[in-house]
Amino acid sequence: MRARLPPTGEGTTLVATEPHSGGGCSFHDYRDLLDINDVGHKYYLELELEDVLDKDSTVNCTAEVLYHLGNKNIAPDVQFTLEGELKNTDEADNIFYNRIKNLEKELVAENIPDSHGNVPPEMEPIRLLAWVASGYVIWQNSTENTKFQLAQIKHVKQVKRSDEYLEFDYMILLHDMVSQEIIPWQMTVLWHPQHGVQVTQDSRQPKHASG
Fold it and tell me: Burial of 3 by CB count in 10 Å (0-12 exposed, 13-18 middle, 19+ buried)?
């Protein structure tokens, strides 16, 4: 094994599991990288997680990220340790859950944020839920040469269910900061305040799907 510099496109996302507890991950310190013969490249990182709703609330994090050699279909292995906890958001999560559950018609929305970067207050939990779910999609599809970021929700539709979960069908746009490509991505998301977020289905879409 030998150390080497990390590529500029290295992108790893750690996310929370509730719409009101999204933790933005900021790069704090690069510690080391090892080439593991016939396996891949392992990064040792120190990160700082910032609450997207409370910029003064931060938690330190250490992580090990292994990118496998030669197989882009295998998600990187991520092991991490949090030093503390972000603030509890149970009350806000339950308010959002009950509001959506009590809608007379299933929620439908598009272009979040809009062309001016605005997000209606009632759509902020929908955006944060997409942000959390897209973190899973980003993790599953990241390589050392990608750096994905959620750019916009093009369309979201609530799917009626008979059980306790909320289900949303999202069409999102991911921005690869390395290639500057904008990628439409469909994902089906389940959420319950006590069980967290599940991405039950996702697929990359042709570019015309974002129109």
Answer: exposed
- What is the identity of the amino acid at 1? M
Residue 137: closest CA among 178, 172, 112, 104: 172
The encoded tokens of residue 15 equal 């996310």
Judge whether 137 and 199 are in contact, CB under 8 Å. yes
pLDDT, position 100: 97
| Residue 90 CB coordination number (10 Å) | 12
Q: How many CA atoms lie within 13 A of 154 on its CB side?
A: 17
CA triple 10-11-12, angle to 5 deg: 130
Strand order in the sheet with 196-204: 108-112, 148-159, 166-176, 182-192, 196-204
Q: What angle do CA 97, 12, 7 make, to 5 degrees?
A: 160
Tell me, what amino acid is at 90? D
Q: What is the pLDDT of residues 19-70, one digit of tens each?
A: 555 555 544 455 567 777 788 999 998 888 887 777 778 888 899 999 998 7
C-alpha dist (Å) from residue 138 to 101, 131, 188? 28, 10, 14
Cα 27 from chain centroid (whole Å): 16
What is the Cα–Cα distance from 107 to 189, expressed in whole angstroms? 14
